[in-house]
Amino acid sequence: MYNMLTGIRIGVSRCQAKIKRPLTDEDFTARHKFSFDIVGNELTPSAKYDFKFKDYAPWVFRELREDYFRLDPADYLLSLTAKYILSELGSPGKSGSFFYFSRDYRFIIKTIHHTEHKFLRRILKSYYTHVKENPHTLLSRFYGLHRVKLPHGRKIHFVIMNNLFPPHKDIHETYDLKGSTVGRLYPEEKAAKNPRATLKDLNWINRGKSLELGPEKRALLTEQLRRDAELLKKLYVMDYSLLIGIHNMQRGNRDNVRSNTLKVFSPTVPAIRRKPTSIKGTSPEAMAMRRAMRESDPKRLGAHDSLDLPEKDTGDRQQFIFYQDEGGLQATDEANSPQDTIYYLGVIDILTPYTMLKRVEHLWKGCSADRHKISPVPPTEYGNRFFEFMKAIMRGGGGGEKFKAE
Ligand code: ATP
Ligand code: CA
Ligand code: CA
């Protein structure tokens, strides 16, 4: 963690210090190397440990952050590198990725597999062009791509991205929806005990839920989802989901014992935060992670009493249609009048290309279940099904039942 943050601080501020210039083709494949050690040199200040850091396509990410995602450069650096900023989240998915929140809860660092890293580099230009042409895209916002290499050669790749959920609002329900219904059920008994769990497609269907959006927002959201899914089909990606966090304004933040100064960490986090970070195993990474966690944040498992959570939406999201109401999208009725729910939504986990491995998984899982309803299907089918499902779950869309396995 220390290495990641030190690397980002030096890498990002190095690039930031230069005068902005138009991007060139080389910028998309560029990588800047930094070597850190306890002595330091003219390029890098002295660090606590020896490690190497690589900043990928720094100029591209700088432009994405500043021109399209409208982040304030100083803010960004501060969020990521202020004193013990990152809370470890454990590894919520099956992939083994680790997630960390910035101290102000606006950013997420996700460690990614080498193949995902290579893939993001390969599609960076398409991603960049898409973001440029679709300022309201729902796709994960990537703010940076980096790598730390430890002295014994171990490499850790990671991205920095937006946290879809706001620091200042409780999320009362969370869904991770793919449009697949096989195995997409979080046990309701477990959900009853743990209201912060991330639920799945079948929970959504069985609970008879729908996205309550009036004609205006429904049309906008549908069109943006269509475009985003088109890109993902073109890039041959699959396995992504629409993450939906629901804030009920009637309930407000009252489930949460918080003081005026927001000393208590919002339980919104817990969808992922819940499993408080016991990193198991004796692999070098696991051991290094544990060590870094102890060092970077001794109060990590405590009351989170020193987190700087902003009380209100920080404003950088306000120019984005789907993030303009308190950082999210407020429900509306058929007359487009606002209702008491705010949705926080976005398309996440978009770096899985349909590789050989997935093809095998598809054939394998397809032996025991409907070949079209399982999660690994070819990208075109995946994208179409995803889009149809999202249309169906909006009010008036007919519901998601028709996707249910017979
Ligand atoms: P798998 O490949 O097994 O699905 P993963 O490690 O790739 O897992 P993701 O699917 O990216 O992980 O995310 C896992 C969970 O973490 C999501 O269901 C969601 O609860 C949370 N999460 C991921 N990205 C974000 C984000 N940008 N904002 C808020 N929460 C997020
Ligand atoms: Ca996922
Ligand atoms: Ca994944």
UniProtKB/TrEMBL annotation:
Q: Name one GO cellular component term.
A: plasma membrane
What is an example of a GO molecular function annotated in this UniProt entry?
1-phosphatidylinositol-4-phosphate 5-kinase activity
Record-listed E.C. numbers: 2.7.1.68
In terms of domain of life, where is this protein from?
Answer: Eukaryota
Q: Which SMART domains match?
A: PIPKc
Task: Please provide the record's keywords in A-Z order.
Answer: ATP-binding, Kinase, Nucleotide-binding, Phosphoprotein, Transferase
**Residues covered by the PIPK domain:** 1-394
Q: Name one GO biological process term.
A: phosphatidylinositol phosphate biosynthetic process
What reactions does this protein catalyze?
Answer: a 1,2-diacyl-sn-glycero-3-phospho-(1D-myo-inositol 4-phosphate) + ATP = a 1,2-diacyl-sn-glycero-3-phospho-(1D-myo-inositol-4,5-bisphosphate) + ADP + H(+)
Q: Does the keyword Phosphoprotein apply?
A: yes
Q: What name is this protein filed under?
A: 1-phosphatidylinositol-4-phosphate 5-kinase
Tell me which species this is from. Answer: Rickenella mellea
